Amino acid sequence: MTLTPDLLARVEALLAGGPRRVLGIVGAPGAGKSTVAAQVAAAVGPAAVVVPMDGFHLAQTELERIGRADRKGAPDTFDADGFVALLTRLRDPRRTVYAPEYRRELRNPVAGAIAVPPEARLVVVEGNYLLLDEHGFGPVAALLDESWFLAPDDALRLSRLVARHEAFGKSPEAARAWSHGPDEKNARLVAATAVRADVVVRLA
To answer: Which residues contact 63 (CB under 8 A, 6 or more apart)?
Structure first.
């Protein structure tokens, strides 16, 4: 998709509201959050930085230790408290803040991979659970200046999700099983949070 004039106008209005603003892009797995976040950042230019929530995945070894590796991506497989702490720091533009980044090829986050300098006027945060009220994510919504919930066609979302899992090493059968199993369970949980968003973006 490309950003509509209405969405671009919302970004401009958001930037007019203060020296630094935080925009949340929310949606189910495969909804296109990373794509939309990148488009917003490109429209704003160097003054925007994208910070994905996925950087707060628990490490694969920790998920295996606590018995949650078979449902990686569920709310309780993230460091929600760490994510809230980062967002709180990002509200203060006086110094550079470093955020982690999830590397799919490693199956682990990498600390300090994303720099948010003082001159960053817009921080675009994208993730599944920005509007969830459970599992430690409750404070997140209040730390966002605006939130967009992405609502694509479900069949398209699932096909993209299967293709992504295949691209990162799953067999076609395993990719479909994961997309229609753990990912779909998480998608239903995320869908229930759409009512808390400032705007629902319908994607073709």
So the answer is: 69, 72, 77
Distance from the Cα of residue 87 to its chain's centroid: 13
Residues of the domain holding 129: 22-203
Is position 33 within any domain? yes
Long-range contacts of 79-84 (CB under 8 A, 24+ apart): 80/56, 80/129, 80/135, 80/136, 80/137, 80/140, 81/136, 82/56, 83/53, 83/56, 83/137, 83/140, 84/136, 84/137, 84/139, 84/140, 84/143
CA atoms within 13 A on the CB side of 113: 15
141-191 pLDDT tens trace = 999 999 999 998 888 887 887 888 888 788 888 888 878 887 888 889 999
Q: Would you say 101 and 94 are in contact if contact means Cβ atoms under 8 Å apart? A: no
| 17: in domain | no
Measured CA to CA, the distance from residue 45 to residue 58 in angstroms comes to 31
Render pLDDT for 72-121 as a digit per residue (tens, 0 to 9).
999 999 999 999 999 999 998 999 999 999 998 888 999 999 999 999 99
Q: Output the pTM of the full model.
A: 0.91
- Is position 15 within any domain? no
Q: Considering its fold, how many domains does the chain have in total?
A: 1
Q: What is the pLDDT of residues 18-48, one digit of tens each?
A: 899 999 999 998 899 999 999 999 999 999 9
| 98 found inside a domain | yes
Tokens (6 digits) for 183 = 């990912």
